[in-house]
Amino acid sequence: MTTMEREAGAPPAAETSSKRSPKVSSSERKSQILWLVGAIVIIAYALIPVAWILSLSLKAGDDINNQRFLPSDVSLENYRIVLSSDIFLSALRNSVGIAAIATTISVVLATLAAYAIARLEFPGKKLILGVALAITVFPVISIATPLFNMWRTIGLYDTWLGLIIPYLSFSIPLSVYVLSAFFREIPWEMEQAAQVDGATAWQAFRKVIVPLAAPGVFTAAILTFFAIWNDFVFGITLTSTEAARPVPAALAFFSGASQFSQPTAPIAAASVLVTIPVIILVLLFQQKIVAGLTNGAVKG
Amino acid sequence: MAAIEIDHLVKQYPNGFKGVNDVSLNIADGEFVILVGPSGCGKSTLLRMIVGLEDITSGELRIDGKRVNEKAPRERNLSMVFQNYALYPHLSVRENIAFPLRLKKDVPEEEIRRRVDEAAGLLELGELLERKPAQLSGGQRQRVAMGRAIVRQADAFLFDEPLSNLDAKLRGQMRSEISRMQRRLGTTTVYVTHDQTEAMTLGDRVAVLRKGILQQVASPRELYEQPANLFVAGFIGSPPMNFLPAHVEGDCLDTPFGPIPLSRERADAVAGRDLLLVGIRPEYFEDSSLVDDAKRPHGSTFQARIDFTEWLGDAQFAYLPFDAEPEVRDRLRELSQELDSDQLRTQAVVKIDASSRIREGQTAEMWVDLRKIHVFDPRTGENLTRDEEAGAELTRQVAADRAQQVDLAGGGRSSGTTETGGAGPTGGAHRADAPQSVDVRDAAGSRQMSGGSTT
Ligand SMILES: Nc1ncnc2c1ncn2[C@@H]1O[C@H](COP(=O)(O)OP(=O)(O)OP(=O)(O)O)[C@@H](O)[C@H]1O
Ligand SMILES: [Mg+2]
């Protein structure tokens, strides 16, 4: 995930540095060069591990010991192994399903809650936001064991629901926090204008506030999805079989082509594969997160 | 179309502060009423109470005779233009304007299209319909906000300082457009502003608010000629009225600019008081050497030192400092703070002919027209020389003008739209696209103070 964020952040910096007009003073040129160097360093820092994993995943058999960065022969063997492995496919199914369900529920509930927090004055509002923030920094590992025991007793162990519930309890507070900041930015008057125009409170929310908050909602959705997609702690402690085990946990159980060969290259291939949905999501949502959507709402 | 009756409305905030305090005002069907006052006086609050965005603490609000205190904004069928326009940024101009119609389930698509096109035509938005608000200029956004307000055939329009974000030129243009539009649609309109010009030129009647309390409701002319108190006198007019300290001495007022003789009734009105304030508008002064012989007997002349002059081409302002005792100085400073004016009040601003050769630092002979000056009690602020009958007469005149103009505008509406307001004298229309100060001065007649003594 860290890699992804860096990747997403790098292109604009590179763009700035390449925008060079013919007449620039030497100090401007110097700062541009600095920008360029900085951008290259950051891109390299972010992309080299990715490139490495990619090259690793393309090395067949014993080729991973070839002492070189690039594979001697580009081979898709590892991908074939991974994609024909039941462990990986079921894990992928679990991950996609659990992350999608948990993200949807989390974002819908958080949107409603954040709207109430941003718009209504009620006692304990500060406390709620404070607690929400506290939960997002709460060490996940400390509740893993209690949950393990509890889920086994009540039968939620190794089920999708058993993972969705803890995911929700961590992602909703974060989304509420992010979204309430977003809602606060939307001028009250948008909504009042809608009411004067004849909208009910619900219509005003649905037709005006939600579209305006869409960038925030997508941001929250992406953050939530990534957090769940990358989760390892709950994935490994609360599951035991292919019924619910998500990809990050499943990779640890990966064994490769035969019992005796090191699974490094297939794991690299699996890692590349699980990164693909994340990249697709970012590309899709990036267009939705249009900065400054509220431009033009007010004044000039 | 609707009449709005504001009956002893009070808005008390949770901290106990009264943003609007016992305001009563009847707005007739089709009337254009301006709410004006310095910043923080409760104009927006009152408007938002009318539209339903602010709860009413006590009092009653009636639209067409029906109590609406408890009604939600959407049940009041009023439309509002917000100070910052509050356009929906995610919708195109067309959809912004159509928004109120789409919320009504029963308006067919082609009807929506027709009405949006009609409103857009009226506001010259035709080519902008497919744009998003972010792609519009300030004036265009303002017109879109207006389009959204008029498309719905609401019972009344409420405007909250709609022009305050525009530059001076555009403001002038939009002002006349609003005026024309209201005239044409004949819809009851309440318009909040703190701009002098908008207040004087747009409204049939102007309601002046101060700290949540209604001071006076009258036609612009009446406010200008017959202000109810010191606050209204100081607020209306630009540059503002000069206030000079005065002591009663028999039939005369002793002021820093020499004695001012009083007529019988006026002398009676001020008798028995010690300190008074005399209110004289800048244009009542003139360079003594340039006064017509015919006019001269209506005023008096005095010598004064000119501190500073400003030549503006069509006229000239001169600043005449005067001495005032601490009590008066404090009162004047207080007043100017309240009026949001930065004017130093212990100097008189006088407006004289542009050809006058009076120069800074000289002592010059000035003439002052005494017919229309007013005398105020500095403690209560009450205008002791207010002539109710003259004021009512002014308002009757403009009511007649309005009737005529409404017929001309072809609004198809009958003329009897004036009605006595709850807190002030009658209102009528006065439409002045041209500067009005000249004819106002002559129309006000010579029934007031007369006399001509010299220092
Ligand atoms: N929630 C609140 N609690 C307490 N006082 C408030 C509250 N909201 C507004 N006020 C006060 O009510 C008064 C009236 O406010 P209002 O917005 O009506 O002023 P205004 O006349 O529209 O001023 P402006 O010309 O600056 O827009 C102000 O003095 C303001 O400080
Ligand atoms: Mg206001």
From TrEMBL, chain A:
<dbReference type="InterPro" id="IPR050901">
    <property type="entry name" value="BP-dep_ABC_trans_perm"/>
</dbReference>
<dbReference type="Pfam" id="PF00528">
    <property type="entry name" value="BPD_transp_1"/>
</dbReference>
<feature type="transmembrane region" description="Helical">
    <location>
        <begin position="265"/>
        <end position="285"/>
    </location>
</feature>
<feature type="transmembrane region" description="Helical">
    <location>
        <begin position="96"/>
        <end position="115"/>
    </location>
</feature>
<feature type="domain" description="ABC transmembrane type-1">
    <location>
        <begin position="92"/>
        <end position="285"/>
    </location>
</feature>
<keyword id="KW-0812">Transmembrane</keyword>
<keyword id="KW-0472">Membrane</keyword>
<feature type="transmembrane region" description="Helical">
    <location>
        <begin position="208"/>
        <end position="229"/>
    </location>
</feature>
<feature type="region of interest" description="Disordered">
    <location>
        <begin position="1"/>
        <end position="24"/>
    </location>
</feature>
<keyword id="KW-0762">Sugar transport</keyword>
<protein>
    <submittedName>
        <fullName>Multiple sugar transport system permease protein</fullName>
    </submittedName>
</protein>
<dbReference type="GO" id="GO:0055085">
    <property type="term" value="P:transmembrane transport"/>
</dbReference>
<keyword id="KW-1003">Cell membrane</keyword>
<keyword id="KW-1133">Transmembrane helix</keyword>
<keyword id="KW-0813">Transport</keyword>
<feature type="transmembrane region" description="Helical">
    <location>
        <begin position="33"/>
        <end position="54"/>
    </location>
</feature>
<comment type="similarity">
    <text>Belongs to the binding-protein-dependent transport system permease family.</text>
</comment>
<feature type="transmembrane region" description="Helical">
    <location>
        <begin position="160"/>
        <end position="183"/>
    </location>
</feature>
<dbReference type="InterPro" id="IPR035906">
    <property type="entry name" value="MetI-like_sf"/>
</dbReference>
<dbReference type="GO" id="GO:0005886">
    <property type="term" value="C:plasma membrane"/>
</dbReference>
<dbReference type="InterPro" id="IPR000515">
    <property type="entry name" value="MetI-like"/>
</dbReference>
<feature type="transmembrane region" description="Helical">
    <location>
        <begin position="127"/>
        <end position="148"/>
    </location>
</feature>
TrEMBL record, chain B:
<dbReference type="GO" id="GO:0005524">
    <property type="term" value="F:ATP binding"/>
</dbReference>
<dbReference type="Pfam" id="PF17912">
    <property type="entry name" value="OB_MalK"/>
</dbReference>
<dbReference type="InterPro" id="IPR015855">
    <property type="entry name" value="ABC_transpr_MalK-like"/>
</dbReference>
<dbReference type="InterPro" id="IPR012340">
    <property type="entry name" value="NA-bd_OB-fold"/>
</dbReference>
<dbReference type="InterPro" id="IPR008995">
    <property type="entry name" value="Mo/tungstate-bd_C_term_dom"/>
</dbReference>
<dbReference type="InterPro" id="IPR027417">
    <property type="entry name" value="P-loop_NTPase"/>
</dbReference>
<keyword id="KW-0472">Membrane</keyword>
<dbReference type="InterPro" id="IPR003593">
    <property type="entry name" value="AAA+_ATPase"/>
</dbReference>
<keyword id="KW-0067">ATP-binding</keyword>
<dbReference type="InterPro" id="IPR003439">
    <property type="entry name" value="ABC_transporter-like_ATP-bd"/>
</dbReference>
<dbReference type="GO" id="GO:0140359">
    <property type="term" value="F:ABC-type transporter activity"/>
</dbReference>
<dbReference type="GO" id="GO:0055052">
    <property type="term" value="C:ATP-binding cassette (ABC) transporter complex, substrate-binding subunit-containing"/>
</dbReference>
<feature type="region of interest" description="Disordered">
    <location>
        <begin position="405"/>
        <end position="455"/>
    </location>
</feature>
<dbReference type="Pfam" id="PF00005">
    <property type="entry name" value="ABC_tran"/>
</dbReference>
<keyword id="KW-1003">Cell membrane</keyword>
<feature type="domain" description="ABC transporter">
    <location>
        <begin position="4"/>
        <end position="236"/>
    </location>
</feature>
<dbReference type="InterPro" id="IPR017871">
    <property type="entry name" value="ABC_transporter-like_CS"/>
</dbReference>
<dbReference type="InterPro" id="IPR040582">
    <property type="entry name" value="OB_MalK-like"/>
</dbReference>
<dbReference type="InterPro" id="IPR047641">
    <property type="entry name" value="ABC_transpr_MalK/UgpC-like"/>
</dbReference>
<keyword id="KW-0547">Nucleotide-binding</keyword>
<keyword id="KW-0762">Sugar transport</keyword>
<keyword id="KW-0813">Transport</keyword>
